[in-house]
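new request in #modeling-help
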Amino acid sequence: MISHPAYDIEPWCLRETELNLGLLAQSESVFALSNGHVGWRGNLDEGEPHGLPGTYLNGVYELRPLPYAEAGYGYPASGQSVIDVTNGKLIRLLVDDEPFDLRYGRLHHHQRVLDFRTGLLHRTVAWTSPAGSTVRIRSSRLVSFTQRAVAAVAYEVEPVDAEIRIVLQSELVANEQLPPVPGGDPRSAAALESPLVPEENFARDTRLRLIHRTAGSGLQVAVAADHVVEAPAGTTTSAESTENLSRLTLTTHLHPGQTLRVEKFVAHGWSSTRSLPALHDQVEAALFSATHTAWDGLRAEQHTYLAAFWAGADVEVDGDAEIQQAVRFALFHVLQAGARAEERAIPAKGLTGPGYDGHCFWDTETFVLPLLTYTAPQAAAQALRWRFATLPAAQERARQLGLAGAAFPWRTINGSECSSYWPAGTAAFHINADIADAVVRYVAATDDDAFAREAGVPLLVQTARLWRALGHHDPQGAFHIDGVTGPDEYSALSDDNTYTNLMAQQNLAAAAHLVSRYPREAGLLAVSGAETASWRNAAARMSVPYSTALGMYEQSAGSTSHEVWDFPATGPEQYPLMLCFPYFDLYRKQVLKQADLVLALHLRGDAFTRDDKARAFAYYEALTVRDSSLSACTQAVLAAETGHVELAYDYLGEAAMMDLSDLEHNTRDGLHIASLAGTWTALVAGFGGMRHHEGLLSFAPRLPTALSRLAFTVLVHGRALRVEVTRRTATYSVPAGEPLEIQHYGTPLKVSPLSPRSVTLPTAAPEGTAPDQPPGRRPLRRSAGGAPPVG
Amino acid sequence: MISHPAYDIEPWCLRETELNLGLLAQSESVFALSNGHVGWRGNLDEGEPHGLPGTYLNGVYELRPLPYAEAGYGYPASGQSVIDVTNGKLIRLLVDDEPFDLRYGRLHHHQRVLDFRTGLLHRTVAWTSPAGSTVRIRSSRLVSFTQRAVAAVAYEVEPVDAEIRIVLQSELVANEQLPPVPGGDPRSAAALESPLVPEENFARDTRLRLIHRTAGSGLQVAVAADHVVEAPAGTTTSAESTENLSRLTLTTHLHPGQTLRVEKFVAHGWSSTRSLPALHDQVEAALFSATHTAWDGLRAEQHTYLAAFWAGADVEVDGDAEIQQAVRFALFHVLQAGARAEERAIPAKGLTGPGYDGHCFWDTETFVLPLLTYTAPQAAAQALRWRFATLPAAQERARQLGLAGAAFPWRTINGSECSSYWPAGTAAFHINADIADAVVRYVAATDDDAFAREAGVPLLVQTARLWRALGHHDPQGAFHIDGVTGPDEYSALSDDNTYTNLMAQQNLAAAAHLVSRYPREAGLLAVSGAETASWRNAAARMSVPYSTALGMYEQSAGSTSHEVWDFPATGPEQYPLMLCFPYFDLYRKQVLKQADLVLALHLRGDAFTRDDKARAFAYYEALTVRDSSLSACTQAVLAAETGHVELAYDYLGEAAMMDLSDLEHNTRDGLHIASLAGTWTALVAGFGGMRHHEGLLSFAPRLPTALSRLAFTVLVHGRALRVEVTRRTATYSVPAGEPLEIQHYGTPLKVSPLSPRSVTLPTAAPEGTAPDQPPGRRPLRRSAGGAPPVG
């Protein structure tokens, strides 16, 4: 599992040199291109064979009824599902009289390269048709970071040894047929078959356009394309269009040495409110801009954009080439998910696949936004401004639930709740504190005053109101939050979940603090002094359950007295447990799907002593089975902090290889964006020891044996702080700007452009025995030399 | 609400003298006839107008898929729904050339009488058609207690003032059209439309027959009819049949003074296994037996059967004529639900309506079987033998859930789980202890050795195994049962629910005890000495949560520290709460839908002191809103025991009038059989103070001011113990048999045929202030003279 035979290990790209049809769907996810607004799965240009065709526009979904055999008050009646919109990628080819289809004939050469620095996906193919005609194809594809509606393909075909007759069909296709959902609910598949209702179709000269709308959600979707053709004389073109297909056809003869080159520019647009002519004009304008920029211009813009990103975001890892590649793959895909999402959600799978129905969860704020906050802060701001835009829906949901403030949805596309299973949906109120945490972190890292004023105050005030309404003071004054579900999905409906309570505590205190900074904005929300006092009081008196018997904080009140899961009796084929055991049994026993209290040890590390952390981490290691991809990175961070850097390294490997090695066997449905971001977190917060509590940026670096050097850059207060860690020293530097105050292992350090600070790492205590995981659930050993130490 | 204008108050019957079309569906439930095998709703003979037509055969259901937007392991894939089978009640009439339909013309007289002593439903009507023809109709109907497949109708029509032309159509109708389910799920309605697939139809002379099968569940249903006609000369008859209709038509002229009389005998049968010819012969044989017995014979058998029942079951109440009527109504309907169920379930609505999909719940064992055990023990035995017959399904369910022994379904018709909402289904494991409790009670009351050996041992052993697997010993040895749901449906997934734990304790101890009595049968189940020791140990070390702060047992561990529901902010229109508030909020706060710990105070009263009971009853009174019909009777019992007999009397009124006054506005869907049984419980266990712990039968009678006398009979050890209570004395007598040892207010008493024992009641302590209920949730005051003290 460490090494995936399909991909070469290279520092700045992902290269595939064999086409394995069984892995096609997984490769379509890893080779997906996106800018956060438009997503193109890495489908082959010719459309088939495919694992799962996919073109997504952030925010475009169809409604589907949520069925209940026994309904209850407050259950959402309808859900949202991302849909496959009009496919602009397609370029089909007829070679002599046979379709170019890799399932037939002979494939001499296949290569795909995703270049993290240029943002292009390149493909080269050499193929002989069953009838013996041989062609070479080169294509490059991009989804523009600079022109958010635009994607483009440059496609070249040439004969290898004899003249061939070529027909090339460049298409827009709507309502393309999708493979059946494996094990899926037949109702939801039916509802989402052919979701696009034709509104307009057009084809003339080299220009194509299709406009559709969704029947239930009432969204209009427009996709238009134009082409630049370089072809031998005698090439004929024709354009035609029907409701679901708009097509440019080129017919020509190519002699060896001749090339047919087509540049295809595709513009995408959608709207719930604008008129058909307005949307029509919008995509035409975007298309005009793209053709005006031209292929070389789009490539250059893409490169410039990414160069700026990497300058502020790159992570260098010496000693593990696979991790070096994986962290850049991760940074690239997380950027793709969020770069131009612009007041739309960042879904759990980004725009790389339809998994989780295209929904956004707490993953975004808790796992993805930390990375974006310190590397692409404008993307973090936009994601939080999307939450702000959905505040009215969250306030309505809170009212419906009999609460105050805002109750953000557990899973959503448009801001309204899509979770039909309330014990792990409605009850998981921590998402509200997670959003607040992301707001606090973003403001602390950027000093973005406009954001704090416009979005930060309302988000913190309404979430603080929720917590105040959700909890209660007991007769002794302690504040309790009962009957809620924390991060761990193998527990539910507990009293005083430590993670939830500590995150709510921060939420309440931060709201009171921000309100004091922005009294005018607070006044518009009718925040009174009495109200902020009540928040401060609830925060100050927040209960944090502690087991005196164990001398340890516990996940929730009384949870450590529950029966421990019978791990020895659980076979490896019974994981993930939720597919083999009922929730009732998982919930009532000590077994964790994912970090819960341990996540609190990371995000609210300021609330615990070092001993607290060591004890709790060891205790919960033995109970955590990691059936969730949202766990390894957090365990890496706490393993590193508690002195188990080799174990942390193993967890880093798991987070980093989640999709490249398809560890959970569902990368076909899209990438695990949070786990990708966790790769960065494991390195920066784990081995870099970075924390950012109460505005104080601190580091406590320590490398595992395999790594000789780790270097990363984080953007704080508008400056790019570079941290370089070797086995003995850490060097902190800023290229420009005011000095920056940080801490290194608790010692204050002032870093200025003139004085990079190089400090020796404290001698590590001898690494004690690492805590045990449940039998069979130890992460793969990376620390034992799994990867060659290539620089 | 105390008095229902539609029904007169009479001691031995229920009389309706007005036809209120708005109350038709409710009246069809209260006038339903059943023997536990066949159920005929009280639909008018002519079929329309109707509220809800209904003919039910116990055990006949159709499957329907249970939809889940987010499915989970162990969720049942399909549910069962009772279906309206072939209707044999129908006798349509054409008067001159107008259909006899009470929605038109003029109704001069309407009366229906349900006679509790004869078991007949009589109807008399005088009606003038829109065209001016006046007829008088008399019909009587019975569902035979002695011939369980058989129902019969005697129908007479006569002209009042002029000759009329009559066409009478006596029919069997399958797949009759049902009114839409109000607010129901359209899917379930669709699945159950026309559930019967035609197999055979027949009509010749006066004989009719229809045989169908259900498409999904594969059950064959046969209904046959024969007729005896007394008609003037010149009457012609014809019979015809199609797939869903079999009809006998009589045409005649009647002069004033002439009567057309039709006796219709209907036989019902169903089978999942027998062949079509076998089923055909079965209903023909039953029909032959019925016609051979003839109408007068069936009537006589019915009367004899009921006379025997009333001799061992009647409850006399002096001082409240409405309660006198209500308790006999209740006894009659509970008998109807269980008399001939014979190894089929007793559904929550009996066979009086389709409510709760015709499912059987814990209601049967906990609320219905106590009454049947002491008044119709053979019916109690049959109900428990049905559970025994479903043991294989319950054992399979336990295996599926990763448990040992048997996990009985929360709701079912055929023995497999139909509950799609696991927090209030799968997690409500107490149903297993409730079944065990009913077994223990039945065996204690009857000394039925064959039952104990054949069904009792397996039921107790497999449920004990479940508890042993479900709970765990903590390091100190205490036994805990975590994460289960007790009786109260406004709480869920608690640790150490007191009711569940105490009932499990009794289950474990009783299993160990019965195994020692029947070692051979236990051996067949591979029960070892080590296993029974583990049961005894778990029972001995069972945790019962106690709040030291309150000096009181609590509903479940830590539950008394939850926030109390904001009752003052809850308006009367917001009840029942589950229709206006989300489960998450109900579950995490102190608010009870129904008695939970208070039910434990009754059923495991031996585990509490008098002070424990008084404190806990008062505490939970203030939190219990009675949104369930399964609460008032239990609150009556505990109110009486803790010295609040006037409050107990109020609760008695609520339990007794649940259906007669339609207190929950859903009697249309069928009667609340458990609440009806609770009327008996409130009188016998409440004012009679009857308890039966560990084989010891005890009484502590005390009457409320309004009542001057209460007398009841209970069957124990094959003897009919009569208890007569006045304001000052209690008299215990047995007409025959060995002496009986009982207790009166803790004093042993030997009652023999020769020596009835009359004892003075102890002086009552002055009745203290009754505990408060939540604002607006006090039961209607019956104690303040709501009902006239008519003897």
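bot summary: The longest helix of chain A spans residues 276-313.
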